[in-house]
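Narrative of accomplishments. A recurring question from our advisory board has been how the design workflow behaves on a single, concrete structure rather than in aggregate. To address it, we present the structure tokens for one chain from the evaluation set, followed by the sequence designed for it. No filtering or post-editing was applied between the two.
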């Protein structure tokens, strides 16, 4: 626990000033986190990170991360993200032929899905920062409140397991405790942010965001359980890897945009 706290404090001290500053440093930070998360996912699958598929997977996530302002210029020339995604899909399939199926179709599919899941999640983090710093903090604090509420309520009164086949420590009481904690945080933010939506919709949306964050956590737990690993990586001592720390964000930030709270 001591190591976990120390790592958390150091990470926050490095992360939050860059989020506050925004601009290019923030975009570069998000690109770095995305690359690390993609490589962690590939490692779980057993795909060498220093390889052509590894390079293409990271590059694909970078394409998906392109801010709307830059991607818009490409679209004027007739090359949007969907066209570029198709190019990468074809490259992976060509590689299955070149390697005589040593690099399999399943591995090609993983090399497409992992960057999609991670890249788009972080893309919406960049878009949220463009909308305003307080929206980023809203999403982060909703996620952190959900995690903390689920942990403490689950430890205090949680008995019935939520999904033991995926994550044996999560409980039903913790699930609802996480949602309640997120709603409390949202009430505080209602006095700080001028949401375009009404207060009732913001609170309902917050409950959905809290659920999404917990599903994001479970989705990554399912991935780790499938590949029989404890953590996605070791970059953050006491916390695991980047994917372990951002799995909820990858669900929360896109949903924040879909709910049109910005």
């Amino acid at each position: 626990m001591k190591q976990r706290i120390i790592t958390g404090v150091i990470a926050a001290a490095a992360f939050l000033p860059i989020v506050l500053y925004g601009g290019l440093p923030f975009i570069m930070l998000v690109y770095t986190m995305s690359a690390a998360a993609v490589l962690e996912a590939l490692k779980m699958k057993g795909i060498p990170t220093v390889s052509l598929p590894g390079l293409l997977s990271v590059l694909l996530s970078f394409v998906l991360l392109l801010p709307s302002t830059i991607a818009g210029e490409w679209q004027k020339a007739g090359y949007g993200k969907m066209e570029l995604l198709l190019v990468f899909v074809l490259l992976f399939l060509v590689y299955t032929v070149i390697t005589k199926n040593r690099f399999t179709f399943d591995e090609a599919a993983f090399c497409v899905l992992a960057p999609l899941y991670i890249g788009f999640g972080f893309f919406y983090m960049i878009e949220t920062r463009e909308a305003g710093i307080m929206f980023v903090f809203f999403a982060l604090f909703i996620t952190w409140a959900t995690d903390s509420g689920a942990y403490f309520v689950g430890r205090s009164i949680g008995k019935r397991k939520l999904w033991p086949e995926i994550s044996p420590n999560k409980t039903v009481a913790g699930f609802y405790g996480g949602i309640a904690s997120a709603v409390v945080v949202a009430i505080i933010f209602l006095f700080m942010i001028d949401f375009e939506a009404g207060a009732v919709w913001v609170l309902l949306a917050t409950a959905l965001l809290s659920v999404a964050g917990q599903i994001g956590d479970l989705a990554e737990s399912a991935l780790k359980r499938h590949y029989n690993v404890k953590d996605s990586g070791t970059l953050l001592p006491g916390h695991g890897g980047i994917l372990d720390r951002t799995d909820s964000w990858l669900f929360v930030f896109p949903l924040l945009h879909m709910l049109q709270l910005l």
